[in-house]
Design a protein that fits this description.
The protein has 485 residues and is mainly α. 72% of the residues lie in helices and 0% in strands. It is built from 19 helices and no strands. The longest helix is centred in the middle third of the chain and has 42 residues. 47% of the residues are buried.
Length: 485
């Protein structure tokens, strides 16, 4: 009876091993997962800037981006394999290396960052929705937006902004708290919708000035001067930037890989990230290049090249094109918010209080925090440098990955005792020292110091994009050496 009560403290239906019949994700679903991961305004702008603004050789950018994609896929296979095999999420897998109690507090660090970013992303998502509402209102009545009620602002937002923000929070929580089957469908649809949107946008651009756009595109693709010493630094700079962009998803990838049919599908699906990078790069560069040419041909004053899809659409001054583009942007942002922020925070919260929280309750908690973060983002949070704190907490993620991997593959030789993952009894395999694996925690903080130093030490900031890799490497080595003693 005592043993059963101990188990209940750590068990939750969302955390226990997935029923084999529910492992229905294949490589195509993972292709959509990685597609959603890259299909964001930030991803679009980063890729476009690397190819078009920074004056880096195109072959260098392409090679560095592909290498980053392969490394992310390789790391995702490493961390995703045990979760796929045992059907457990990241937070539960973490118990094997950090202890059943230690894993609660380490995993909640990922959850806190995810909750914060969920609130911020929700704010920007609501801005896109607000623009859409304004356009629709304008189409119905051109003078309605001139009423005094729309000129009243509170915390930097007017009535349309507040309505959009509150609606966005409630709608996301309502959708995202559903089961993994629904989330899988949502991810698949979002990836398809955004790619269809990109294709349509490319066709529109090609129809306007195909000859000029194709010539400019060819000049970019076949640029010369590849074998230069200066390209070496550029290569590592681009590689670090692209890897850093994807690194946030790696550590908790087990939250998704637990639903994959088998390891073969997992590997094929992860390496489809490389295909996503190639496709998204081509679309992004073509759209930005083509838009720049068309706008200049229309005698629009262009002091700089526009890299954000919202800025590009704004310059075209076409209401119907703006509506279509905003719909695609909303799909992309919402689905990215789901996989990068909501699901990681949901699992982390449930793992922190397994006997008390459900998907609905954890969703409500996320929604409440998101409301306060998003509503105060413009007047307060964005002004006080909180992102530096978020970056510092994120510096734990690389070390966590390194410790988990060395512990599972080299120390425990891929062996996990499933029932002890949910046992808080002192005789449990993962109870260690009162629920904490002291060696892993010590390794975590040592690696964190090195990882965080790239953020806070001015002399080391040139390594900031490599913070994750540095932390993972030191955590890997430290935990292995300590555990071998």
């Amino acid at each position: 009876m005592i043993h059963e009560k101990n188990n209940l403290k750590l068990k939750n239906w969302e955390l226990v091993s997935v029923n084999p019949q529910e492992k229905n994700w294949n490589w195509k679903n993972l292709f959509c997962f990685w597609g959603v991961s890259i299909q964001s305004i930030v991803g679009f702008s980063i890729i476009a800037s690397l190819y078009l603004v920074l004056q880096i050789n195109i072959i260098i950018v392409f090679a560095a981006t592909l290498l980053a994609g392969f490394l992310v896929a390789f790391f995702s296979n490493l961390v995703g394999s045990p979760s796929q095999k045992h059907g457990i999420p990241f937070a539960v897998f973490l118990r094997t290396s950090m202890g059943v109690v230690g894993a609660k507090y380490v995993a909640i660090l990922r959850g806190l960052v995810a909750i914060f970013m969920f609130g911020v992303q929700t704010f920007f998502l609501s801005k896109s929705l607000g623009y859409l509402f304004r356009i629709l209102i304008y189409l119905v009545n051109e003078n309605f937006l001139d009423k005094n009620i729309f000129s009243v602002f509170y915390f930097g937002l007017n009535i349309i902004d507040w309505a959009s923000f509150i609606f966005t929070i409630f709608f996301q929580i309502y959708l995202f708290r559903k089961n993994q089957g629904f989330n899988k469908v949502l991810i698949n649809i979002s990836a398809a919708v955004v790619y269809i949107g990109l294709i349509l946008f490319c066709l529109i651009i090609a129809s306007k000035s195909f000859s000029d756009v194709s010539n400019s595109f060819n000049e970019i693709l076949f640029s010369k001067e590849f074998f230069l010493k200066s390209n070496i630094l550029s290569f590592f700079s681009v590689f670090g930037t692209m890897f850093a962009y994807f690194s946030i998803v790696i550590v908790n990838f087990g939250d998704f890989s637990r639903y994959v049919k088998n390891e073969s599908e997992l590997k094929k699906g992860n390496f489809s990230l490389v295909l996503n990078i190639i496709l998204f790069s081509i679309f992004s560069v073509f759209i930005v290049t083509g838009s720049d040419i068309i706008l200049r041909q229309n005698f629009i004053d262009m002091e700089r090249i526009f890299l954000s899809p919202t800025d590009i659409i704004g310059k075209f001054d076409n209401i119907y094109l703006s509506i279509i583009a905003l719909v695609f942007i909303i799909f992309a942002t919402a689905s990215t918010n789901l996989i990068a922020n909501f699901i990681p925070s949901q699992y982390s919260l449930i793992n922190f209080a397994p006997s008390k929280l459900t998907p609905t309750k954890s969703g409500i908690i996320i929604g409440i925090f998101a409301f306060f973060i998003g509503s105060t983002w413009l007047p307060i949070i964005s002004q006080i440098g909180v992102l530096s704190i978020v970056d510092t907490v994120s510096a734990f993620f690389g070390p966590v990955f390194g410790i988990m991997i060395v512990d599972y593959y080299l120390i425990k030789k891929k062996k996990i005792i499933n029932q002890d993952l949910f046992s808080s009894a002192s005789t449990g395999t993962y109870y260690f020292s009162k629920g904490w694996q002291i060696k892993a925690i010590y390794s975590l903080f040592i690696a964190f110091i090195f990882s965080a130093s790239t953020i806070w030490n001015n002399d080391l900031r040139f390594l900031q994009t490599y913070s994750w890799i540095i932390g993972a490497s030191i955590g890997f080595i430290m935990h292995y050496l300590l555990s071998e003693k």
